[in-house]
Structure of Replication restart protein PriA:
Amino acid sequence: MLRVAVPSPLRRSFDYTLPTDSTTAPDSLQPGIRVRVPFGNRELTGILLEVSDTTSVNLNKLKPAIEILDQTSLIPAHLLSLWLWAARYYQHPVGDALHTLLPTGLRGKAQANIKKRKNDAVLDDAAEADHPDREDELTSEQQQARNDICAMSDQFQCFLLDGVTGSGKTEIYLQVINDTLSHNRQVLVLVPEISLTPQTLARFRQRFVDRSIAVMHSGLTPRQRLNAWLLAAKGDADIVIGTRSAIFTPLARPGLIVIDEEHDSSFKQQDGFRYSARDLGVMRAQRESIPIVLGSATPSLESLHNALSGRYQHLRLTRRPGNARLPVTRLLDTAQQTLEEGFSSELIQSIRQHIDKGNQALVFINRRGFAPVLQCRDCGWTAECLHCDARMTLHRTPAHLRCHHCERRQPVHTHCPECQGKSMLAVGIGTERSEALLQRHFPDTRVIRVDRDATSRKNDLNDLLAEINQGDPCILVGTQMLAKGHHFPAVTLVAVLDADSGLFSADFRGQEFMAQLLVQVSGRAGRSDDAGKVGEVLIQTRHSTHQSLQTLINQGYHALAEQLLSERRLAAMPPFAAMALLRAEAMNAAAPAQFLHTARLQAEQLLTQMPDGHQVQISGPLPAPMEKRANRYRQQLILRSTHRANLQNLLSVLCQQLEQMSTQRSVRWSVDVDPQDMI
């Protein structure tokens, strides 16, 4: 019997007999090969999990498989085992999980061959370097970190490379990677965003001119992605650089995994198969007996807790190399000030001083558009999305209202639909409004906006980054796209327009995310080796005495992290407890709560049958912080336990029961294990 994982929402595998025309001996079939099978009235491509002598299905009802597509497994046994473990841990249907992780080109009947030139997938858009980039001289801290990692090259060890912004973490990556390559082993490097991939690839091409580098991200064509996947699997790619899903790329000679900016929430898939690439990277490294390096200037509280408890080896980098120094940070209290479209007069003056010295300034506001609210002055009406519990954002280029949650668009109101008044007011600030104000104040200085709207076309972001890196005086205005790992040597001033939103978030991770974002964006200042380019960071806030802000500014990220960890420990919240969200949504407003109420009753009944059932706490059903989104109403159950195994045992049985509920056909439900986004 062929036990096959089929791409379907059902949480089980399916049994088939050999194809009727097959002459292949069953014991010669390897787990991990693709099999074409009948499924209802369709034909699907599944993954062979095992060949078995037994089945729970009546033999007369078994159908023969249609075709064996591969002679040998595309997926190494240890990687297939990881995939199956991940599907179980994240409570996702195994067939759908495996289908998701295969390159698009292998989800059908296509043969696993490289049909284009190798370099089509390997070199991507990067140019060949004429001469290799020389290794930088390391500081004593860097040298110690490099030596510690290289000493564990033939065994599993998770390293948390915890270094301040600009401390040279990338140089350590490069030197450790070079050591790994010298032992004829492959390296997998993950970055959180596609936007960082060209920058990372260019740096790697300059250093490793005689090595093949494969790139894996969603911006590639299916053929490019398949070629890169196969080159890695066959051992023809020495280095694989990719985003989240690249963690499942097979390597013929695995030697090292590097996850840069490990704290970034982009490493957690937020829909479908909700896996964490960072956590699976650690699990994969352990199974392959290789080291893994998690790098960040602002480690996640989970990773920091693992380092402090001895599970990870903690490597600290406390200063920048050469003449570069950490920027000086100040809070600007705006509680009693009159602001000009979000800018204090002191901030405008500081920008002018830095520009006059021939430097660059970066203005950070994590809100796209011109203004987040369009309001009637006469009656107070505001433009709200009809499909979401959210206001429409006003955009000026081109003029329209847009919901940033469901992407619904509509023309800008010239009259109030409630009172017919003509006095419409744009309330609040976004990147477009900040850009317009700065253009008025600095008409002779280039103002560059970097957000999703300004970089919607291919190469837009690369073109803007290239212009910035020319070093000419300019003002950058942007969202968190600017905060993630970019190197801007000419930026000497970073201005944060509003630091307050994270202080009062509905997400228990809100202050952690706020601190990480502030430190990361602040780290773009003062990165030049020119001793004369001293960095300055100005943070506007209406709550300058808030304890978390004071701790972050005066004592640093790690002091705040210790404070937050203490609070999490007292509240039994992650990382001191395991958590899962059971989400439900439907077009009918009452259906999600009804479904989750039944789910809670079933869960509580199951817990009475478990020896340690009392160790799992259930909260809800509760409306999601944004209850209505894209015309669907959303509710959630929060399940939490200080013993991860107890939570897993409950979820594995509960999910099977929920599949059998008749009401689930009108309700879309999902499980999010170790959720990163509570909103």
The CA atoms of residues 501 and 514 lie 8 Å apart. Confidence is low (pLDDT under 50) at residues 114-129. The longest helix spans residues 591-608.
